[in-house]
């Protein structure tokens, strides 16, 4: 059960949060000042912090700095009143997961909490790589399982590329462990203390994917009442994992190509390019060569993506790992 710490001097809001979150089986704790929030974060080790930017004893940014200093992988959602957009954006640049405005939409907040907890799990949980013996104790962690020559090649490829900043394309059928491989690359990289953000290009509707990736400026579309940073900007210094990139709409592929070529992005409705420092890991189960020949995927983007390619084999191609995999799953 995930533990969520709410730091806000509004006791009624904390009570409402507790009631709403308990219905989704979350455990909650509350702190009513910045100093108390910092102490509780250290004491109870929450899975997520929801932090108000205005507190009676400290500025929310200072509170975030203290929390982030000791728990850099702990996701923090900033809640703020309208009119403090720049302050919220400043915390995102410092490493906060996201921000949301008061009064907030409850389903939107619950969705954001779910994503933040998943991001925190991916950043904090380690992936065991290179299990060389069949009697290895896997414990409760996640692992890339196998001692076959095919899997050993995967471990070597991860080891070679992890310490670089090269773009990585992970290919393979559904269920072959592409996300685990991406997390292993992140875990063993020099960016392992920075954010790791997962974006599924299929799960997000095409109309929302651009703003999710690149953000938007105030007035970019109906309802855009403030400027919002996209996930790529939020991952400053970290890693972005784009799952199912083969399904990225053609209209977005050109903007994504610019990111790979020039390390810059343009927000939706924006007029200037913003430099970003992120590493890109992408995955797909699609035949990209076929998609390129059919005009469904840009050829220049295809070549930019496959700087380093890791192909995850299906189990039928390394059946000698079946017993070890069964042992791991039973554990």
> Helix proportion of residues, in percent?
40-55%
Residues in β-strands, percent:
15-25%
Task: Indicate the radius of gyration in whole angstroms.
Answer: 21 Å
How is the main sheet built? Answer: 5 strands, parallel
Question: By helix and strand content, what is the structural category?
Answer: alpha/beta
Query: How many beta-strand runs?
Result: 16
Mean pLDDT over the full residue set: 89
**Helix and strand succession?**
EHEHEHEHEHEEHEHEHEEHEHEEEHHEH
Tally of DSSP helical segments: 13
| Spans where pLDDT lies below 50 across 5 or more residues | none
Terminal Cα span: 20 Å
Shape: globular
With strands numbered from the N-terminus, the spatial order across the biggest sheet is 2-1-3-4-5
Model description:
- This protein is an alpha/beta fold and 331 residues long.
- Helices cover 41% and strands 19% of the residues.
- The chain contains 13 helices and 16 strands.
- A five-stranded parallel sheet has the order 2-1-3-4-5, with helices on both faces.
- Helix 3 links the parallel strand 3 and strand 4.
- The model has no long low-confidence stretch (mean pLDDT 89).
Question: Could you list some keywords that capture this structure?
Answer:
globular, five-stranded parallel beta sheet, alpha/beta, 331 residues
């Amino acid at each position: 059960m995930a533990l969520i710490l709410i730091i806000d001097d509004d006791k009624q809001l904390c009570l409402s949060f507790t009631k709403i979150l308990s219905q989704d089986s979350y455990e909650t704790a509350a702190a009513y000042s910045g100093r108390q929030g910092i102490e509780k974060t250290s004491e109870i080790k929450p899975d997520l912090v929801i932090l108000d930017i205005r507190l009676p004893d400290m500025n929310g940014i200072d509170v975030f700095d203290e929390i982030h200093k000791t728990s850099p992988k702990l996701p923090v959602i900033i809640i703020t009143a309208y009119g403090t957009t720049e302050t919220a954006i400043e915390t995102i640049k410092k490493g906060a997961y996201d921000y949301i405005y008061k009064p907030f939409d409850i389903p939107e907040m619950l969705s954001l909490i779910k994503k933040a907890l998943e991001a925190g799990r991916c950043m904090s949980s380690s992936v065991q790589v290179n299990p060389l013996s069949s009697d290895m104790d896997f414990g409760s962690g996640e692992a890339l399982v196998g001692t076959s020559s095919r899997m050993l090649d995967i471990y070597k490829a991860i080891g070679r590329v992890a310490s670089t900043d090269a773009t990585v394309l992970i290919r393979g059928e559904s269920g072959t462990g592409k996300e685990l491989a991406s997390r292993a690359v992140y875990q063993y990289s020099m960016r392992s203390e920075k954010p790791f953000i997962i974006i599924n290009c299929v799960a997000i509707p095409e109309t929302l994917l651009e703003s999710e990736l690149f953000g938007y400026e105030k007035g970019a579309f109906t309802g855009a009442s403030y400027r919002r940073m996209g996930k790529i900007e939020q991952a400053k210094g970290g890693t972005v994992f784009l799952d199912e990139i083969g399904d990225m709409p053609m209209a977005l592929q050109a903007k994504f190509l610019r990111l790979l070529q020039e390390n810059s992005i343009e927000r939706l409705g924006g007029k200037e390019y913003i430099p970003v420092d992120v590493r890109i890991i992408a995955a797909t189960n699609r035949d990209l060569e076929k998609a390129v020949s059919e005009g469904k995927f840009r050829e220049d983007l295809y070549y930019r993506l496959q700087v380093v390619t890791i192909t995850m084999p299906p189990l039928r191609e390394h059946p000698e790992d079946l017993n070890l995999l069964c042992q791991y799953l039973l554990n």
